[in-house]
Amino acid sequence: MHKKRIALLTILFVLFGCLVTWADEDVTIDVHYGYDDTAKLGRYLPVYTTIHSKKPQDISAKVQFIVQEDDGIIYRYEHSIDLKAQDQISREDTIPLGYKTKNIEVCVITDDKKELARKDIELGQGEKNNRLNIGILSDTPEKLSYFNHATVDYGILTTKTVQLEKDSFPINAKGLDQLDVIIISNYRIRDLGTEQSMALMNWVKAGGVMILGTGARANDTLGRFAPELLDEMFEEPKMRKVHLDTGMEESEDRQKRDPVEMSSVAVQLHGGNILVSDANFPLLATVNKEKGVIAVSAYDFVDVQNFANQNRFFANQLLLMIMGKTRIEGIANGLYGSNAENATEIQNMINNGNVSILPSIPLFVLVLFGYIVVIGPVLYFVFRQGGWMGYYRISVVGVSVLFAILVFILGVPTRLENVFYSYATILDTTQDSISQRIFLNLRNPYNERYNVSFDRDYDIYPISQEKNVGNDFMHSSIKFSNSADTKNVEMNYIGSFQPSLFRLEKSMENQAGIGLFGEINLFKNQVSGEITNYYPYKVTNGVLIFYGKVAILGDFEAGETKKLDGLDLYTIPIDENYATATRLTGMDQYNSAEIENQQYMLTFSRRNLLKFYMENYMSGYSADARVLAFSQEPLENEMLVNDHYDHSGISLLSSSISVTHEDDTQSKEYRSALMTSAKVISGSYDARTNTATLTEPLVLEYLLGNDMDISELLIEPMSKEFYGKNSAFPQKKWFQGEMDFYNYKTREFVPIDLNKIDYTRDELENYLLEGNRIRIRYVGTGEEKENIILPMISIVGGKD
């Protein structure tokens, strides 16, 4: 009998399990993500879900995407869904990933939090994570197949092409975040909608590389981007014989390839950097857009198909020239993407706080000293002289209570009772648009659950931090959800005073015309023109930054116009952002830290914010100037709904202004020779930062351009007087040694005087090679050999 009972219970248990399994399968989930179910970490990941319902009734439910970030906190991204009876729904969501995310859990729950279905997705990475994802936008993508499975920079990356379609092209840059490069060739760019075009440009600014082929369809490919990208409209495309292997390293040691006749067009990019020229005809140029790059070729890449298939190095070398080794190595190491911010760096620029709530140490010491004096000798003497020693102990207790109340009262201003936050805003303005980025640090003095609601117009990106072994985040989570008017964030037991970092972004039309705008002319070391403050409030610490030059503007009152004529102009290193930001914000005026000084803390935060901006949004050559200033005015539009929290923050205001480079007669033009990447003949050189490793001599060939009748060549050293006594700049990084011009007649290098700045055309007669090229050798003799800052090379001449 006992065995029969056991058997019966076993059967019932199995049947119950089957019923539970059947019930669970009433709702099922199919999940795919990224491209071929692979994911690049530290970026946004498109997740495609199909939810099937076999239930006989409609269900109001929620789908959650659950990931654990680098800091150990669990992030939940929640969206409401309506499941119809016996039906299915498909959706696409973009989920931010940390650099150590291993899996995503997809969960469907009812409104009363009953789980209907769950699927755990292990992210595919491995060797596929070291590939270069290339999106192809073309009417004939099969003719661009040579970009697929190409090895880049000796196999550091392997390419994978993905065909993009107009109907499925994202309307938000997050949907493109898994791509590293987008190639647009033989395609009418205006076929994309306005939102899709904005998403594409925003993706570039966030760090993407967009490569445009032109040729016979130049008008179609450049399309609505032409006004922003071009200095002037191009001529009609013509048939030309083009040496496609020009400038490509892997072809230099081989026999020169025959030129290919194809339709090509000379495109003058505004502020562009000409990478390759063939007989002074520009074949490939690039221009920087914040973190990203736009490259434009003179030809259509579909016309290169036969040449590229016969010469497999072509795709590799083209991508290497456009992207550069630094970017390629960064992608291989996972350092490029929307979530690549350094959490520590962001905390340094927004944790300025309010020093007025710090306790006064001298006051508390005085109170403690008074307490000891009163409770000891004073009370004892008074009570002993009065003969009241029987009441001494009671009086001690009473005085202690009074001093405790006093300490409590003194501590009230320093006590935080609610959520508080600090922020740093970057406000980029043009005449037409405003782009706002806010870096936010939310904190709570208590380890408890709380909710905050943001304006729905903001995109919210969490910034994960390195896991702190001293903090237990096992039960910590952050949930994101949306309502009709707000985006909501639920913070669950993050920890007392623990930082929670977010990046908020919003773009809008510049209907009020705010910004710092004007007209600027830069010729040699003289700047002229004017700038007007169109903000309705005062801005401070204004600076004018060119490529390798800077001028200090000072404060602007609302509506004030400043004349630029006669302003001191300094030549600065391109990549020494910390030292430059220290000087521009006045941080070099402090000999030591003064954390109780509100002005010191404000200057400290400004320095860190300016450094962050210069490193992330001003890298590479640009022909435009940028006007920067600071403001402490509150944000015009509140980011938090029903904002009643204590907060502090700063804002960096930025406007880009086109610059002319003409003399008074407008007959001569001044420009940087670095707008075209110098060709490395021997040695080690980083064109992005104009620095060199001088363990051996470096020989560079500067391509000065054949479109100018050169009258002067300027060798502009760094302005050492710009950096004060407390500067963080390492002076030993200045170039020290010997500079030589190559004499093409005698075929020898000739030393030049380092103190001489200006060389006339007559003095350059034996040094200018065909096509306005000049070779300069740098021989370092200083103590330092790594990352040596070279002089800036500029030219003056008349247009041919």
Task: Supply database-style keywords.
9-stranded mixed β-sheet, 20% helix, 45 strands, Immunoglobulin-like, 800 residues, alpha+beta, Rossmann fold
CATH class of the largest domain: Alpha Beta
Structural class of the secondary structure composition?
A: alpha+beta
Strand order of the largest sheet: 21-24-19-18-32-31-27-28-30
Mean pLDDT figure? 85
- Write down the domain tally: 6
Number of helical segments? 12
Distance between the first and last residues' Cα: 109 Å
Q: What share of the residues does DSSP label as strand, in percent?
A: 35-45%
What is the name of the CATH topology of the largest domain?
Rossmann fold
How many individual β-strands? 45
Which percent range fits the helix content? 10-25%
Q: Over all CA atoms, what is the radius of gyration?
A: 32 Å
**CATH homologous superfamily title of the largest domain:** Class I glutamine amidotransferase (GATase) domain
Using the 3D structure, state the CATH architecture of the largest domain.
Answer: 3-Layer(aba) Sandwich
Q: Could you name the ranges where pLDDT drops below 50 across 5 or more consecutive residues?
A: 6-24, 469-473
